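Many introductory courses stop at the sequence. We go one step further.
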Amino acid sequence: MKILFIHNEYKQHGGEDVALELETSALRQKGHVVKTLFFDNKQIGGVFSKVRAALGAIYSFSSARETSNTILQFKPDIIHIHNLFFIASPSVLFAANKHKVPVVLTLNNYRLLCANALLMRNEEICELCIHKKFPLYGIKHKCYRNSAVQSALVTTITGVHKFTSTFKNRISTFIALNEFSRKKFLSSSLQIDATKILAVPNFVPDPGQGDKIRDDFFLFAGRIAQEKGIHIATKAFASMPENNIIIIGDGPEKKMLEEEYKLCKNISFIGHLKKQQVYEYMKRCKAFICPSIWYEGTPLTILEALATGTPVIASRLGSMTESVDDKINGLLFRAGDPDDLRDKIRSFVKNTKNDTTLYDNARKTYIEKYREEIHYNALLKIYEKAIAQNNG
């Protein structure tokens, strides 16, 4: 099978980029011919507010031409898109339809429904725009980069294509990363038929299982940003100096949090590390902390922790409750509540002193749900069905 991936890269490498790399690698290893057409938001620079850039984000003639040329040269059986925004634009869907190639779109976030893609505002879940084809609330509250102008541009991009049914009619199959987000999209202004959207979680390669006896620290690894809830974790650990947390990663909140908690000896920021180094920390930590305050997709870090046999202590919110089964392979706490997180950590320490059940179950969860082979088989079925329907 010949598969063309289309991906619009963000300015900062993130989980979507990693998921794409893992998926294309797995398909190549299975003998499929894979090509990736990249678009890059670094081209935008400071001109996104200009009319030309805005119109291009709604429909880019140059991106459509590039996609058409790639299709003619590569002759794919199917196109799989991970991100359209902003340089690629929905114009690539028109190019695919012109050449009668079926399209699969992975819904990595909520961009089609929400200006900031997170369904979050002022550190709280916000669903005001889910059912609106042209959601003015996003503009009113300056949800994209705290700018009414830029929020209007993002809203116009999705609004125009919802009104003209671009997404509904030009995409064969949508892939949601979990059942929670699938239901959100099904009940949204996109008006997608239930048969066209399927839940397929991400996967991670097997990093190997950690030891049953762990070192004296908990772990956070990821982007240090508001939506990831790292400020919830630091506040919780600041109130229990007997427990240590190591924080791996970088992001807009890092410097502020480092300064705020510089006197807390039990809170350590160690910056960005290579993936293999992160795995080593996961294999040694007591548990992995995922305190996100937004509707996560399927965080790769949760899957990686489970793969190393590491229990996860996560927010009781959205899809995280699908990956983390309370008191089975980890613990769940009230999202945004540092006091409840503190209580759950203390309970975890007490209950795992002489019991490794959570560690065993964490690894079992990975084996049963998040291995490469499981993801590949689900993906192949989606491709084959989309191609068959297109040919029929």
